[in-house]
Structures are given as C-alpha cells and as structure tokens.
Task: inverse folding
C-alpha cells in the first residue's frame, strides 16, 4: 500500500517537473522577501516561565515593587576617590541621561542625585534630614564635604556608594514598552543606547562606566550572535569542500547546498509570517537547518550517484532515489520535527520559539531536499567520476565494519557499551540544574559585561543577584507588632543562610527608626509593642523605599545573594520554603519570589520539571515513528538504544565540563536525539529490506554500508565539523552548545555503525 502511494507520488511529481520547479521558485521569492523583514527580538518576558507560581507572584506585585528587568550603572573614579568635582559632574550627567532614555521607569531612577535619596539623623528635637545632595549644592570642596557627611548619615554605603568610595551607583527599572511608540520595548536597541549615550559619552581616563542588567546582557549577546553569520559562511565553505570530495561532481555539490539554503530562507520567511522575531538563541537554528538539509541532501545525491554509475539516466536515477529515500528520509525528518516540538512542553517563551523555529525549518527540508532536490537533479545530464574512495579501500572499510554484526564481536561491543553507559550514568546523575558560574552564563568570563558584574559585586554589597520574598498580609498589617515580628524572624534566619550576603525589610528598618526616636540608643533597636509607637516608626518609611505598598498590606523582604549559581539559589529557596511553612498563617504568607534571582529560581525549577517529560516525549515520538516505519519492535529498539546511551554520555560530559542544564543547554539533548536518529533510520531501513529477503544479518549490514554507509559517516563528520566552529564563539552558551552537539553528532554516528549492528545480531539470532 505504502509502496504504491510512493510510486504514484513519484509519477505525479516527475511528470510535472516544470510546474513543481515554478511553484518552488515562487514560494522562495515570497518567503525570501519576508525573511528580509525579520528582526531581532530579545524581550525580557520571553526568558521567564510566566505560568510558574513564582512568576505569578512576580507579575502580581511588579507594579508596586518593580520587576527583575532593571539596569545598574556603576560610575567609577579610576583614582579611587569619588569626592572630586569631575566625578560628581559625570555622575549627575549619567543620572540625567539615563532618566531620559525611552523605556526607563523615571520614578524608579535612583542615585545620589535622586530626590528620594535622603538622610535622617537624630537631633535634640527628634529627627532631622533632607536630600543627600542638598538643593543649594555647589560642586566644590565645601559642597562635597557636606555630601560626604550626608552619605554617612543616609547609610547608603554599599548600596549607592561603593564600600571603598571608589564608585557610585545609578539604577533604574525598565518598562515593558516604549512610551514614545507604545510598542514592546526593543531590548537590543535599548542596550545600544546605553552603550552610546552612557559609556560612549562619559567614559574617560578618569571615569569608567560599568553597566549590568538583563537589557544590557541581551544586547551584548545579540552583538556576539553576529558572529554566527561568519560561522555560517565557514560552515557552507567546509561543507561544500566535503560534499565535493564525497560526490566528485560540481553539480552534485551545488544542488544540495542550494536546496539547503532554500530551506533556511523558507524557515526565516515563515517566522515573519507567523509573527515571530529571531532571538539570540534561535539565531543558531538556521545553521542547524542548513546542516540537517545537507545531511539529507547527501543521502539523496549518494543514491542518485550510485544509480548513474550503474548506467541509469539522470532522470531515472533521480526518480529511483526519490522512491527509495522518501519514506526513510521522511520518517527521519518527522522524527526531528516531532523531537523539536517536544520542547513546547517547557513553559519558557524563548525555548518555545526555538522549538517552533527548528520544527518549521526541519519540516521544510522534507519539501526542499526530499522533493525539490531530486526533481532539479533530473534536469541535468550528470557526469560522475566514480568512487571518491578507491573501490577496494571502501570495500575493506565496509568489511571491517560489518564484523560488528558478527555475534562474537557483537557481544563484546554490547558489553563495552553497557559499561560505558554505567560509567556515564554516574556522572549524569550529578548534573546540576541552572548556572554554574558567576556573571552572565551566556557570555565568557572575560567579556566586558561579566567584568562589569565582577566590579560591582566586589565594590558594592548589593548587586542584581537579589531575590525578593513577598510577604502578603491585610490592609495596615505593618502596624501590628506580631506581623513585623514574624517578618523580622524570617529575615534574621535568612540573613544567616549560606549564600545570603545581606538582607533588607520593613522590620529591620523600623527597628533603626525606633532607635532614632530614642536618641539613637542601640537598646531601642526593637519593634515597638504598641501600635501607636509602631505607626510612628513606620510613618518615617516612604513607599518609594520599596519596603511596603500603599495600604501596607504587602512588605517585601530583599535577600542579596553572593551569586546566582544553581547551588546557591537551591539552598536559599529550600530555606525560604522551610521557614515559610512554619511562619505562614491565615493573616500573612511568605511567597516566592521576585527579583532577578527569583526569575532564575523559577526558570531552574521549570527546566528541572521539564527535563524528564521532554525526554519521554522525544523518545516516545521517535519510538512511534520508527515503529510505524519499520513495523518491527526489535528494529525500533535497535535504533533507540544507541541514542539513549549517547544522551546519557552527553549529560555526563556536561557534568565533567561544569555545564549546567539551563535554558540554553536543555534543547541540545532534544536536538541531538532528533538529528542523531537519522543515522540509524537510514542504515536500518536498508538492512530491514535485506532481512525481509532472508539475508543474514552480517551480509545485510555489509550491503547497507555499501549503499548508505559513506553518506552516514560523511554526514556525521560534516555536522560535527560545522558545529565545532562554535568553539570559537564570543558567546559562552553557543560554545557550550557547539561542544555538546559536536559530541552528539559524532557519537550518535558511531552508535549507528557500531552498536546498532551489534544489537541486530542479537535481536535476529536466526539470521546469523
């Protein structure tokens, strides 16, 4: 039935070759124009799991306390002392410039020059205070001395002023939209403005500007992602050389490359049709689409080439190759597509877009490389020079590899594979979830962004590594001693948790204010027990401090962490949950989480929860498609088992190289399985035909190698060489993906030509 359908489809296509070509040309022109309209898109909300309970808390209170999308600008005096007129001029100019950049929440811009930056001191009559930078400030030695005194009184050293007085901080919250256009904030354009309007204008030999925050990191990642274009060109060149060495024909070299590039154009064009942009992670997908397209194109030209050598015309050879490869190639590409679609199970926008982008790209390869390529080949009068390898050399290689299907060799191979799997499983079980290095994990440690991060971490007691625990109560809850006492107990326990550098809450500030009302006596740094005294203390703390909302029903507790490494976040989150379970009651609840580290915690948990289901979906989809294709449980298991062993070894490699399972690395496993299954399907589809004819396993494998082996080995090497260029990327996450994909492409290929035949020898004992 299936064979009859394939034959009918082949007859339909090749009788209407001109119309097929015309249709593809029109579609390519249309989608090529749409591809030219594609824009980079790195929106903050795409990077967070919006449905996670932490993010529901984050979004609920974002308006009152700001979100995790913030910018911190540390202005450094290279002389090590900020108290000079040149520095204060630069600090004021940077504050003003940041204030007016579209997309900045102006009410939340904070620095020494913010009116909300005030000091309070205890005097004979009670309290006195005012702005740290007074209204009559003059930028001279006398004025700077006044400011120095006010800074000490304000208690902002470590927050707005570096602990060694070498730098001062300007921070701001960002909007989700551009107030001038109403469109979503263009994060990458905003990052460019920060670079040109702050660092470009004000950095001198005396003044250095350090900028961190999601928007700046996204901009630096997008800048580094431009290198992908160079890698793409290198990959095309390397692939072209290798395809020529394989095919020994200029025409058979150009055609699969052109068809694969058409697939890339279609994929990019379709993204704009469905309203997507291209974020820094998805920018790697076109390369993968090209590489996958070439790998299937090589299978096609290999089949055509062999038939031409046997004396068939180009048209007959193309039609015959189309018939033989449509089903295995289609199943392989459907397996890739479904494998990528399983990433939709992860509730993070950037991964879901990657899944859709990759699935679209692989799906169109079915059209461009399994249909268009043989139709185009049929128009050319091919002149093929013969085997790229000498025939005797190739036969010796295939005969050597065919031994893997011999029962004696097979048992040894399977025993070694089992031992390797057991060894890898030990390491794989120790794989960490989340980031395992300081700074931005997407960038190298020596990048400008990470150097800025390390400067701020070293010189200030607060950084963007802050987790906010939201305490939800009832209106005027902060005027009750029992409420603030619980918050104080929670803060004290968290302050003594490993990984927490400092804390801040309404309770701790209220204690200091109460001491101020009592001549600053340390004995009075307690929470007043009566409501009147407590109201007096709380009344001195404005909502602009971020410690309470308008009706005093929500009071955040800020936890400033030493870093955002996976282990640190896990320890802190576990401690919060344990303490909250004890302190929660019907009046107040301690809820995770807001702040940048709160977002990371939610992302880590989303990745952890999605890991097992994603793997089950990937293997389940591949299993069903192989079962439908081979109609044999033994054949399906023979394809799946090597993939599973390689996936386990890849996770072990991640542990060994200190690469955590994060948003950037989670898709790699699905990509590796989806692409790796192609090798086994092509080998076993040929073997299955021979086995049905009654051929012995070893002979069936030998003939499968003679027909498809060179293309499989070539494909594995080409894919691996292509992604290995990513080792030199300016992006750390791309380098990590390059290492893992190179490993999976190579080892999956080895699994298909070593472990798979050994399994078939065991599964078909009567055919030995």
Result:
């Amino acid at each position: 039935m299936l064979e009859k359908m394939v034959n009918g489809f082949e007859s339909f296509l090749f009788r209407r070759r001109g119309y097929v070509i015309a249709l593809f040309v029109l579609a390519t022109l249309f989608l090529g124009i749409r591809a030219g309209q594609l824009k980079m898109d790195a929106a903050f909300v795409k990077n967070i799991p919006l449905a996670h309970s932490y993010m529901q808390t984050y979004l609920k209170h974002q308006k009152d306390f700001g979100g995790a999308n913030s910018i911190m600008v540390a202005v450094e005096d290279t002389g090590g002392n900020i108290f000079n007129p040149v520095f204060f001029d630069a600090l004021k100019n940077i504050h003003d410039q940041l204030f007016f950049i579209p997309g900045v929440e102006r009410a939340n811009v904070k620095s020494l020059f913010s009116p909300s930056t005030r000091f309070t001191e205890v005097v004979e009559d009670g309290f006195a205070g005012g702005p740290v930078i007074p209204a009559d400030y003059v930028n001279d030695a006398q004025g700077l001395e006044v400011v120095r005194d006010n800074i000490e009184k304000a208690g902002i050293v470590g927050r707005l002023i570096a602990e060694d007085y070498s730098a001062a901080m300007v921070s701001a919250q960002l909007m989700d939209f551009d107030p001038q256009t109403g469109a979503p904030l263009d994060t990458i354009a905003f990052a460019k403005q920060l670079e040109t309007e702050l660092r470009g204008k004000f950095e001198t030999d005396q003044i250095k500007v350090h900028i961190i925050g999601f928007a700046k990191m996204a901009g630096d990642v997008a800048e580094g992602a431009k290198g992908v274009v160079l890698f793409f060109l290198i990959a095309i060149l390397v692939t072209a050389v290798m395809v020529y060495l394989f095919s020994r024909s200029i025409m058979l070299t150009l055609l699969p490359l052109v068809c694969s590039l058409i697939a890339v154009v279609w994929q990019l064009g379709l993204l704009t049709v469905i309203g997507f942009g291209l974020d820094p992670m998805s920018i790697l997908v076109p390369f993968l689409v090209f590489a996958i397209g070439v790998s299937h194109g090589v299978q096609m030209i290999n089949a055509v080439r062999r038939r031409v050598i046997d004396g068939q015309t180009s048209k007959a050879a193309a039609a015959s190759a189309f018939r033989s490869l449509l089903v295995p190639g289609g199943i392989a590409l459907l397996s890739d597509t479904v494998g990528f679609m399983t990433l939709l199970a992860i509730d993070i926008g950037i991964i879901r877009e990657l899944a859709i982008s990759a699935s679209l790209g692989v799906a169109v390869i079915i059209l461009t490389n399994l249909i268009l390529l043989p139709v185009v080949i049929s128009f050319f009068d091919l002149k093929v020079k013969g085997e790229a390898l000498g025939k005797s050399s190739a036969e010796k290689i295939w005969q050597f590899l065919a031994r893997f299907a011999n029962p004696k060799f097979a048992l040894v191979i399977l025993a070694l594979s089992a031992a390797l799997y057991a060894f890898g499983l030990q390491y794989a079980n120790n794989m960490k979830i989340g980031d395992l290095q300081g700074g931005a994990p997407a960038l190298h440690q020596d990048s400008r962004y990470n150097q800025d991060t390390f400067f701020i971490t070293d010189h200030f007691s607060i950084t963007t590594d802050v987790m906010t625990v939201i305490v939800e109560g009832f209106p005027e809850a902060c005027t009750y001693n029992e409420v603030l006492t619980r918050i104080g107990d929670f803060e004290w326990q968290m302050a003594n948790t490993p990984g927490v550098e400092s804390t801040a809450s309404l309770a701790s500030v209220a204690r200091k204010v109460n001491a101020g009302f009592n001549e600053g006596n340390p004995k009075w740094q307690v929470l007043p027990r009566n409501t009147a005294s407590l109201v007096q203390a709380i009344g001195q703390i404005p909502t602009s401090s971020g410690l309470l909302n308008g009706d005093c029903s929500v009071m955040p507790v800020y936890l400033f962490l030493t870093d955002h490494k996976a282990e640190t976040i896990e320890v802190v989150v576990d401690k919060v949950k344990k303490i909250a379970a004890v302190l929660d009651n019907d009046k107040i609840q301690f809820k995770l989480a807001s702040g940048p580290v709160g977002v990371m915690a939610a992302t880590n948990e989303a990745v952890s929860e999605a890991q097992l289901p994603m793997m089950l979906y990937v293997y389940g989809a591949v299993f069903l498609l192989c079962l439908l294709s081979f109609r044999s449980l033994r054949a399906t298991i023979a394809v799946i088992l090597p993939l599973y062993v390689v996936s386990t070894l890849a996770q072990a490699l991640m542990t060994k190289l200190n690469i955590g399972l994060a948003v950037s690395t989670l898709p790699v496993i699905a990509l590796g399985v989806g692409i790796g299954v192609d090798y086994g399907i092509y080998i076993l589809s040929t073997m299955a035909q021979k086995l049905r004819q009654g051929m012995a396993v070893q002979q069936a494998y030998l003939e499968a190698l003679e027909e498809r082996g060179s293309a499989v080995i070539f494909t594995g090497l080409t894919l691996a060489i292509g992604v290995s260029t990513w080792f030199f990327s300016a992006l750390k996450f791309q380098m990590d993906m390059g290492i893992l994909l190179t490993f999976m492409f190579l080892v999956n290929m080895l699994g298909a030509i070593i472990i798979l035949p050994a399994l078939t020898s065991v599964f078909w004992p009567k055919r030995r």
